[in-house]
Design a protein that fits this description.
single chain; TIM Barrel; two-stranded antiparallel sheet; 12 helices; 37% helix; globular; binds iron/sulfur cluster
Length: 296
């Protein structure tokens, strides 16, 4: 089936056996990503590029949805943000979720952008959920590591607005990067803030290094970048194409996130960590939130 699809793809995170995601499809209205996160994994495959609309995207989507099973989970997006600044004018993502909703697909949005709130009218009337990524609440750190993305404050505000209108929301505290956003108090505060904004689910993971993102850290974060580089080169272990930190270190980094999620009664999971003991949710990626409205 996958050979005939042109814009929808069966989600397959590079065949990693550590991925615990349910069967789902991914959809990217844009190629590249204007958010330009220093730690981005996708750049190792496509390079660092701003978001560009895909040619004939809507026409190809309309064809692809006739191929995949009705009711499938479709995630926008797994390796580019579906709400880059140009989406405000392009409306490609809006049109895509309109089509998916009309045809009865479950829609999982993963974004760093408040622009998603614009489409609350569609999201609230479909089997949809939104995962907002927040790696730090410090505006200066966010500007450094996610220079093209909306501020953390705008993202927290977006959570509130979506929740107020009845859209299930989860948060990705992802990735946790040593020396950058690994302060346990800060991680605890992120979860507290998003829990009070109404988030229901937390996904977290550690930064897994690729050569190109390590290079960006070295170039853009000075001394801190060098420390990150040295840590991963000295202690990192290659697992399925990524440099992972040792498991005990990763557990320690993610513990404040998981403990705080538990304290506030949120479901929680990790992403490609192999830390099953840190997972307490029907799905790791927040897919279960897409049917939350029906479960009420
Ligand atoms: S938002 Fe996601 S896809 Fe876009 S640059 Fe950041 S990490 Fe990469």
């Amino acid at each position: 089936m996958s050979q005939n699809l042109t814009v929808i793809r069966l989600f397959d995170p590079w065949k990693s056996p550590l991925c615990t995601c349910p069967r789902k499809y991914s959809l990217h209205p844009y190629t590249g990503c204007s958010h330009q996160c220093v730690y981005c994994y996708a750049t190792s495959y496509i390079g660092l590029k701003n978001s560009i609309p895909k040619d004939g995207f809507i026409r190809r989507l309309q064809r692809d949805i006739s191929i995949i099973p009705r009711g499938s989970i479709v995630e926008l997006s797994t390796s580019s943000d579906p709400f880059p600044p140009i989406e405000e004018k392009q409306l490609l993502t809006r049109r895509a979720i309109e089509i998916l909703a009309r045809h009865g697909f479950r829609i999982l949005i993963t974004t760093k952008s408040h622009i998603v709130v614009r489409d609350v009218d569609i999201l609230v009337n479909s089997q949809s959920a939104v995962m907002i990524t927040i790696t730090t609440l410090r505006e200066d750190v966010a500007r450094l590591i996610e220079p093209g993305a909306p501020s953390p404050k705008m993202r927290v505000e977006a959570i509130r607005k979506l929740v107020d209108q009845g859209v299930p929301v989860g948060v990705r505290v992802d990735p946790v990067i040593p020396y950058v956003n690994d302060d346990p108090n800060e991680l605890t505060e992120i979860v507290e803030v998003v829990a009070s904004a109404g988030a229901k689910h937390i996904v977290t993971s550690t930064y897994k290094a690729k050569w190109d993102s390590l290079k960006r850290f070295r170039e853009l974060l000075g001394e801190t970048g060098l420390k990150i580089n040295n840590l991963y080169r000295e202690k990192g272990v290659w697992i399925h194409g990524y440099l992972y930190l040792p498991v005990d270190y990763r557990k320690q980094l993610l513990k404040p996130v998981v403990d705080t999620a538990r304290k506030y009664g949120l479901t929680h999971a990790t992403c490609r960590e192999g830390l099953i003991e840190y997972n307490r949710a029907q799905s790791c990626d927040g897919s279960h939130l897409t049917i939350l409205k029906q479960l009420k």
